[in-house]
Write a structure and sequence with these properties.
The complex is a heterodimer.
Chain A: H1 4-30, H2 34-54, H3 58-71, E1 74-79, E2 85-89, H4 98-102, E3 106-109, E4 112-118, E5 124-129, H5 133-177, H6 192-238, H7 244-272, E6 280-283, H8 284-294, E7 299-301, E8 305-308, H9 310-328, E9 331-338, E10 342-349, H10 356-359, H11 381-391, E11 395-400, E12 406-413
Parallel strand pairs in A: 7-9
Antiparallel strand pairs in A: 1-2, 1-5, 3-4, 4-5, 6-8, 9-10, 10-12, 11-12
Helix pairs in contact in A: 1-5, 2-3, 5-6, 6-7, 7-11, 8-9, 9-11
Chain B: E1 7-11, H1 15-27, E2 31-35, H2 38-47, E3 52-56, H3 64-74, E4 79-83, H4 88-96, E5 101-104, H5 109-124, E6 131-134, E7 137-140, E8 145-148, E9 151-153, H6 157-167, E10 173-174, H7 176-184, H8 195-206, E11 216-219, E12 223-226
Parallel strand pairs in B: 1-2, 1-3, 3-4, 4-5
Antiparallel strand pairs in B: 6-7, 7-8, 8-9, 10-12, 11-12
The chains are: A alpha+beta, B alpha/beta.
């Protein structure tokens, strides 16, 4: 994933680089700063007028040249028209080509820009600024680059700050998505990110209320349905003298109704939650053996321990065994297998198997086999098996065994 | 104190169920007090002397778990929770908050009676802290005795050690070798016999039908499992 803050930061750095390039181009186009140049030009012009008047006096000439050198902060020299230096004040004067001597303007010499002014007698007054006007551009560029680099350094934490809030927002939303409905994000600042955080919090609040209401409804349903069941059960106990077979049948019906209520509630709870608690380490073989014992079925296989919700896995194994009992006269065995990544719970029976047309739909709630002759068994059992497996990031599959019979395989991550 | 004349407070918001339970327990010899909500329950517990409380988890004015917590803050009266909630977590929370037992609705009336008697008896039995309970089976570590439905079962010290080793690792597959190691420190007797013989003797004592064991299960080629959930 390309990080947003890097993108933003790259955009800023890019802008700075473009700005620097633009500066360089403008500088190049305008040439050296006119102000500094015109200062030298006017000082030179003034000195030239004075020189033209007092050229015969070598002492005066020297004084004028020294004064100009001081004012223009330059090395100053006088060349004759042929290019030989006649006089100079300062450290040194540039070497000039005859073509350059003939010119009368700003020259670019190897030592930098140099001003060439023609005196009345045809000789040349050469002024070479010591502060190197071209280097001025270099200085300018260096300064701008330093400022740009400084800005780039300064804006990094800034972009980090903006996107860090987004990152925190994302973490909060992720937590919420993972099932922590009470999780909220901190609203920081007053911009769009803050507005987003605020609206997320409002939505989260709303969702939490809805889910809570749903859970309350489930819990209340359970209570409202089971209290009358408890009354019936208690009433049945106190009806004396009736046919014991009728009593047993009523008791069994109550138990079935109770189991169905439990399954419906479990099913909706599994739908409502995004995952299950998998903190418990569960010995699958032991769990399978325990459940299998209630169905007089033998458990076998490898001792595998996985992190899971033990109560839900118990339910899963029980539902598979119950399914085999109802549809195939009982399971022939429960087997635990494993490889590096997965543990498998395999339940087999020797019944007739599920007809092809029903195989796709056996894990659907309240699916009734096309060949079903009795009303029993149509329910949520296998649908819950699938939901529990999925809640553990696993799955369940069905296959018909070669010699007839069925095999249900639940695959769970280790 | 006679168990049969114990005074029990029933906290249940459904008046019809409450009166039926009252009648049923009344016939069994208990004297019942009724509270339709948490506030009334707290008032009655403060005002009168009860031997046990049967508390519905779902009350109109308060969560039964809160009522349970409030009762526990004031008294250690035996407490049986009734619940219709399908959430297995409630049971854990309820027991952590100090309920002595838990019964889901719709309950078998006889089971209610049995559990009520059991929690009353436990309160009268000294040293009940170190007791492992698996359904109707109680393994008293302190007294080194085993009770089924409250009746003491006799077994040798070695058998008890073996049972305890199993029960303390309920829900885990234990190989024969592991079991030998676990019990060797306790007693040196009888080790010429195989562990299977000891297991079958244990089964004869604690299983309802030793031929179809539900508490100590055999896993061929792997060992034994002591069932975590028994008598469900």
């Amino acid at each position: 994933m390309r990080r947003l803050h890097l993108k933003l930061y790259l955009a800023i750095v890019g802008t700075l680089v473009v700005f620097l390039i633009a500066c360089a181009m403008v500088f190049h186009h305008l040439g050296p700063p006119r102000l500094a140049l015109s200062g030298i030009e006017s000082a030179t012009g003034l000195a030239a007028t004075m020189l033209d008047a007092r050229r015969h006096d070598l002492e005066s000439t020297r004084e004028i040249l020294a004064s100009l050198g001081y004012q223009a902060n330059s090395d100053v020299a006088i060349f004759d028209a042929q290019g030989s230096m006649l006089l100079n004040v300062g450290r040194h004067a540039p070497t000039l080509t005859p073509a350059q001597i003939a010119d009368s303007n700003w020259l670019i010499t190897r030592d930098g820009p140099t001003y060439n002014h023609r005196l009345a007698d045809g000789s040349r007054l050469i002024v070479h600024p010591r502060h190197r006007i071209l280097a001025y551009g270099l200085h300018m560029g260096l300064l701008l680059t330093t400022i740009a680099a400084f800005l780039a350094l300064l804006t990094y934490p800034l972009t980090r700050g903006i996107t860090a809030r987004l990152a925190r927002l994302q973490t909060g939303v992720q937590q919420f998505g993972a099932g922590n409905l009470a999780s909220r994000v901190k609203v920081e600042g007053r911009d769009e990110v803050a507005a987003l955080a605020k609206s997320f919090n409002e939505s989260a609040e709303h969702i939490e209320k809805l889910v809570h209401a749903h859970q309350m409804l489930l819990a209340n349903c359970s209570h409202e349905l089971r209290t009358p069941l408890a009354r019936i059960r208690l009433g049945l106990e106190r009806v004396a003298g009736t046919d014991p077979r009728t009593n047993a049948e009523i008791a069994r019906s109550i138990a079935e109704l109770d189991a169905l209520i439990g399954e419906m509630l479990l099913s909706s709870r599994l739908d409502a939650s995004s995952g299950v608690q998998r903190e418990e380490s569960v010995d699958l073989l032991a769990l399978a053996a325990e459940e299998a014992a209630y169905f007089d079925v033998e458990a076998s296989g490898e001792a595998v321990t996985i992190n899971a919700d033990a109560l839900l896995l118990r339910r899963l194994v029980r539902n598979l065994l119950e399914n085999a009992r109802i549809h195939a006269g009982g399971a022939t065995g429960v087997r635990i297998e494993s490889d590096a990544q997965h543990a498998r719970i395999v339940v087999e029976d020797a019944g007739g198997g599920v007809p092809l047309i029903d195989r796709e739909r056996i894990f659907e709630p309240f699916h009734r086999a096309s060949t079903a002759t009795s009303s029993s068994g149509a329910g949520l059992g296998l649908a819950i098996v699938k939901k529990i497996a999925r809640a553990h990031e696993g799955d369940v599959s069905y296959e018909v065994l070669p010699g007839g019979g069925s095999r249900f395989t639940v695959t769970l991550p280790r | 104190m006679q168990l049969m004349t114990a005074r029990v407070l029933l906290v249940e918001d459904d008046a019809r169920l409450a009166s039926m339970v009252a009648d049923y327990l009344g016939e069994a010899g208990f004297r019942l007090g009724l509270a339709p909500n948490g506030a009334e329950a707290m008032r009655l517990i403060a005002a009168e002397d009860f031997d046990a409380v049967i508390l519905d988890l779902m009350l109109p004015d308060a969560d039964g778990l809160d009522v349970c917590r409030s009762i526990r803050a004031k008294s250690d009266i035996p407490l049986l929770m009734l619940t219709a909630r399908g959430d297995p977590l409630d049971r854990v929370v309820g027991l952590e908050l100090g309920a002595d037992d838990y019964l889901p609705k719709p309950f078998e009336p006889r089971e209610l009676l049995a559990r009520l008697r059991a929690i009353l008896r436990r309160r009268h039995a000294p040293g009940s802290v170190d007791v492992l309970r698996f359904g109707r089976l109680e393994i008293d570590k302190g007294a080194r005795e085993v009770r089924l439905d409250g009746h003491r079962k006799t077994m040798t010290g070695h058998q008890f050690s073996l049972l305890l080793s199993l029960a303390e690792r309920a829900g885990r597959v234990l190989s024969r070798e592991a079991l030998m190691d676990l019990t060797r420190g306790e007693s040196l007797e009888d080790f010429d016999r195989s562990i299977d013989v000891h297991i079958s003797r244990l089964r004869a004592v604690i299983e309802d039908d030793p031929k179809r064991p539900r508490r100590i299960l055999t896993l061929r080629g792997a060992g034994y499992v002591f069932a975590k959930e028994q008598d469900r």
